[in-house]
Design a protein that fits this description.
Layout lengths: L2 H21 L2 H24 L4 H22 L5 H22 L10 H21 L8 H25 L17 H21 L6 H29 L14 H21 L4
Length: 278
């Protein structure tokens, strides 16, 4: 199968699964995002730790999912904040205890730091996604869909403008040591498309906020989304891998699909929260 056709087919399937999980029922959302949490943590630990501390990798992955489900229960109204914080601290504590009793001479103990890095980098933002969909006490994935529309528009704009203008001899690269293909032309093209998406969301009513807030939040999400993309690229370059996984043919792993979202969605939500819009 042609790589472009394969990428398109699986891209559409990925989009359908995401929309189904965010628009139909809270149970579908919970299952989908618990699965995303599990796979992304598994990819991160495999990429950074390899075969070291495999049991601790499994424990941290399960702990990240438990923390996600605890946050799900908290934002849906069935969990107290102290219980949520306590659950997070318990996961960290148990990982520390496990490392004590599983340590063997000549083990690469410093690699266990990646366990906590993964929970902070991946587990925490995905757990906080519950705040977006349960912000009123009832399930609604529309705001999350709007956030993803901005992220996807940013990605498409960056790709198109980057391919059209970013490879010219006069075009400046953003971070050539991390991602040689990323250019400032792509960055500004992505910014334009993200803000256009924000304006369209305003006109369609999916963003029920003043237009200037819609444009600002779209621009901020684009900037932090690019940073999230570069941050994941830094991890991959440092560990010598091309893709975080191969779950989605033609697209790589889930980390490759959600790298921007890990930074952009918290940015968008906290901006709206600070200005009392959600």
């Amino acid at each position: 199968m042609n790589s472009t056709v394969k990428r398109t087919i699986f891209g559409v399937l990925f989009l359908a699964v995401m929309l189904g999980g965010l628009l139909f029922h809270e149970i579908l959302y919970t299952i989908l995002f618990a699965f995303i949490t599990f796979v992304m943590l598994k990819e991160f630990y495999s990429m950074t730790m390899g075969e070291a501390y495999k049991q601790s990798q499994r424990s941290a992955t399960v702990g990240g999912v438990i923390f996600f489900l605890s946050a799900n229960s908290y934002f849906f109204g069935g969990f107290h904040l102290t219980s949520l914080v306590g659950m997070g601290l318990l996961v960290i504590f148990l990982l520390m205890v496990e490392s004590i009793f599983t340590y063997k001479e000549n083990d690469e103990f410093l690699k266990t730091g990646y366990l906590y890095a993964g929970l902070l980098y991946i587990g925490l933002p995905l757990a906080l996604s519950n705040a977006v969909v349960f912000r009123t006490g009832e399930f609604s994935g529309l705001l999350m869909v709007a956030f993803f529309c901005i992220i996807w528009a940013s990605d498409v704009g960056a790709y198109c403008f980057g391919m059209l203008l970013g490879q010219k001899s006069w075009s400046k690269k953003m971070c050539p040591a991390i991602s040689p293909k990323k250019s400032w032309a792509g960055f500004w093209g992505g910014m334009l498309m993200a803000m256009l998406a924000g304006a369209i969301l305003y006109w369609t009513g999916l963003f029920a906020f003043p237009i200037w807030h819609c444009l600002i939040v779209s621009a901020l999400m684009h900037v932090t989304g690019v940073l999230g993309d570069l941050f994941e690229s830094l991890w991959k370059r440092s560990t010598g891998v091309k893709d975080s996984g191969n779950l989605i043919p033609g697209h790589g792993g889930l980390m490759d699909r959600f790298d921007s979202a890990l930074f952009a969605i918290p940015t968008g939500f906290f901006y709206l929260l600070i200005f009392g819009l959600v």
